[in-house]
Amino acid sequence: MAGGQDTSNNSAPASNPGPYTADTYTRRADHTPQTSQPESETYILALDTDEAHHRAVTALRNQHFPPKLNKLSAHIALFRALPGSELARIESAIQDLTHHQRPFPISTGKPFLLSHGVGLEVHVAPAQDIFGTLKAQWQGFLSKQDQSFRAHYTIQNKVEDKEEVQKTLQEVQRNFAGSTGTVTGLSLYLYARGYWKLKQVYAFAEETDLGSATVAPKSTDEKWPALGSLSKT
């Protein structure tokens, strides 16, 4: 039976305050869950990939993202504002889905311009199906931001200099050979007013035994930092 590896008691690596801190950060209205009461906790659900692919795209992000603002490794978030008041329902849906979902391939595509940076296309069709399945169950409380999903990596963001952004786009087009890998599961993070903290990793079912899927704990030293500042990416 699929389940989650509880990491809530894991110590988080040290992290310097980012552009937002717990004292100053407030979420935009369209990034807020649509529930009947204010949410003291919200959660992020992201794709979990093999280490080699993750390291490749994180290295690219580290090369181009403004260092003082870059507090996260490369990531693809399916949902960014899941309400804590619905956590039991959320975890149940994730567990049921991952119990029946096999790992699937992921590959990067062309870089493209963002408003203040550069994104990287990602070919990962099953992720859209996963998003649609969970969205149908969670429609009543999703934020406006979480009503849609476009799979991509943010390589650079929060850069006001348009010439620098164009330079980054051209450099990635010229020098990045691309990366392929495997999506191995889903990761659930607590969103703590500007920071991410890993709660659970849900591994997809093994292809050889869909009836006894297990969770493979992930390292938190470099991949998906257990604690890091979250800016809109």
Task: Write a structural description.
- The chain has 233 residues and is α+β, with helices and mostly antiparallel strands.
- The chain is 24% helix and 27% strand.
- It is built from 4 helices and 9 strands, in the order ββαβαββαβαβββ.
- The protein has helices spanning 51-64, 87-100, 125-138, 162-175, and strands at residues 5-6, 42-49, 77-83, 104-114, 117-123, 152-156, 180-191, 195-203, 228-229.
- Strands 1, 2, 3, 4, 5, 6, 7, 8 and 9 form a 9-stranded antiparallel beta sheet that branches.
- Helix 2 (87-100) packs antiparallel against helix 3 (125-138).
- The longest helix is centred in the N-terminal third of the chain and has 14 residues, at 51-64.
- The protein is globular, with a radius of gyration of 17 Å.
- The two termini are 34 Å apart.
- The relative contact order is 0.28.
- Mean pLDDT is 81; it is low at 6-25 and 209-233.
Helix fraction?
A: 10-25%
Main β sheet profile: 9 strands, antiparallel
Shape: globular
Low-confidence stretches: 6-25, 209-233
- Given helix and strand content, the structural type is alpha+beta
Order of helices and strands: EEHEHEEHEHEEE
Distance, first to last CA: 34 Å
Question: Approximately how much beta-strand content do the residues carry?
Answer: 25-35%
**Radius of gyration (Å):** 17 Å
Mean pLDDT across residues: 81
How many beta-strand elements? 9
Number of distinct helices: 4
Keywords:
9 strands; alpha+beta; 233 residues; globular; nine-stranded antiparallel β-sheet; 24% helix
